[in-house]
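Annual report, structural modelling task.

Input specification for the adenosine-5'-diphosphate complex:
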Amino acid sequence: MSAWNPKMEFMPKEELDKLQLKLLKALVHRLYDYSPFYRQRMDLAKVHPDRIRSLTDVAKLPCMQKKDLRDLEPGQLFMASNRELVRYHASSGTTGRPTIVGYTQKDVDTWTESVARGIASAGLGADDILQVAYTYGLFTGGLGLHYGAERLGCTVVPASTGNSERQLDMIKRLGVTAIACTPSYLMHLGEVSQRIGLDIKSDTNLRLGILGAEPWSEGMRGRMEDGLGVKAINIYGTSELSGPLWCECVEQRGMHVWGDQTLLEVVDPETGETLSPGEKGELVVTMLLKEAVPIIRYRTGDITTVDWEECGCGRSHPRLGRITGRVDDMLIIRGINVFPSQVEYVLMSNPELGNEFQIVLERKGALDDMLVRVELKPESFQDNVAKLESLKSRINERLKNTLMISAEVELTEPGTLPRFEGKAKRVVDKRNI
Ligand code: ADP
Ligand code: ZN
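The model returned the following structure:
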């Protein structure tokens, strides 16, 4: 099996623990001595760096929220001067004002190393041609994958987003073997290819997708692997942590998080209390090596699990489970917590349904009303009314059992719901308008 940095990736867990503790102590001391922001926070929380003596002591340090980063001007948190900075990026701004991040050369190198290790573990190598169809620009996806893949020796096609027919033309003409994009965009490319009479499975060399930036389900994985013949690999990261950082290996059982760069925790999203390995909660990340914008205990807002069992590939680093939603993604409908990913999970198990759906929320009188609009596949669109009615009531029933609330279901014509080049927007909330 090929690995980009075998020494680090297969390091025995005890050694990794020791290295993490050494890096954590150095980080806390450095920030206490040189960052007025972190020093003030540590003083307020009454934690002196000397109190960090074991890895679990990290829980004594104060957490950092996205809001903290949003409210600060870049200069207040940055620990690098213009002379040392080599780049800026920003978050997409899915949940509010975009946060701005900066990088020193070492930050870019660490990030690139993480991506190179990840995509190599997913099966990419110097013979591969990777089309990067994430946006290039302030968004971290495009350049993050670009640098990682180049470091690995892949040939990169920097397609960025948009112009789907041209994307497909490149895939065919250049013999592209892998694509990096959002899962919703790969599904969209699948649709466009059908329309123009191109069979991705038999007419192209595409065999691997590095897919992230938005939540997606196992049902979606099955559709991409069976329908398009593209092995679907999950990749995760956020701009605050650098950008896309960790992806699944060929085993596809969680995303390897490199412990020599990162310390993970999972906490109860409401109380902030640390949870045990395997328990589901909010992901909290400490970046051990970041220079320009150091990050201690960053509450990502993303809900997942962390698994410390050794992976089938032999790598010793922890694995991140699928992100099932983000805390601020959670909808409260008639007092019940609902994640859009639960709706996707129910819909994708019906072979009659297409890939696009939308959740529309309205307030009717005092009550919230939830409508799930979902596209039919072209072949099911021809079905008779009785068949469609029975499909609708089956979906209704399953939504009710899964979400614990009832939702109205609308089956729409194929191709009528919005498509997205970047992150898909599944929820239209008209309740506060
Ligand atoms: P934001 O979307 O918060 O403005 P970013 O552009 O940095 O900021 O995107 C990071 C966010 O995207 C993550 O916090 C997470 O919610 C989402 N995300 C990224 N990759 C995945 C993935 N593989 N699965 C689910 N969600 C993801
Ligand atoms: Zn693995």
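The longest strand covers residues 353-364.
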